Amino acid sequence: MTEKEKKLAWQLLERYAETRDPRIRDTLFLMYKPLADSVVNRFAPYQIDKDDLRQEAYRALVDAIDRFNPSYGNLFETFAIPTIVGNLKRYLRDYGWAISVPRSMVDMAYGIQKKLPEIAEKLGHEPTIKEIAEELDLDEEQVSEVLAIMAVKNTSSIDSRITDESDTTGEELLGLLSDRDLEDEALLEIAMSELPEPERFIIEKRLEGLSQSEIAKLLDISQAQVSRFERRAITKLREAIHG
Known about the structure:
globular, Arc Repressor Mutant, subunit A, Rna Polymerase Sigma Factor, Chain: A, mainly alpha
């Protein structure tokens, strides 16, 4: 998209969030359809029919448009890409396939991982996706795409270093909870019910799409405290689910 098109898309996203006008959603779908096509073209196994994958990607794109909250101030792409990738992963898994990650993406991911401590030390806090992009002279969309794909490929050590100001969605949080596929989400619900407060509250709000800063305001504590509670809760959930 051109800068003019991006500005228009953002205005439409804000208007759709307020009105839920299906005509606006249709327009947004057409504007972001190339994004879904790009994800399919990058990561689909060459042996599989891409038309079927595109339909799955389009369904995920519509879902992302429906669930995106512009008030968080994050790029739509950083929300949509993990949603699309997660949907493709489930579809391919059902047919015995796996996401195919280009070597260039793998190299970029490990390059980001290697630089994270240095960036965090320089900034004095865990970097956001925007800050990583600025420090490494990359587009936010590139960084988001790499982290989302590598999370799907079970390299959660990369994105676990990213501060949750990047607006981690419920789908992404599930990826952080596991080093392998979470086959039965009922296990998560059981494990969640056993979490003490405020850990359970924080995870519930994260799954609803709130950022750590927003939750910190609700609880009247610091964002750093929310981050510690969240990491503790994720560790407990992972242990409860995987033993």
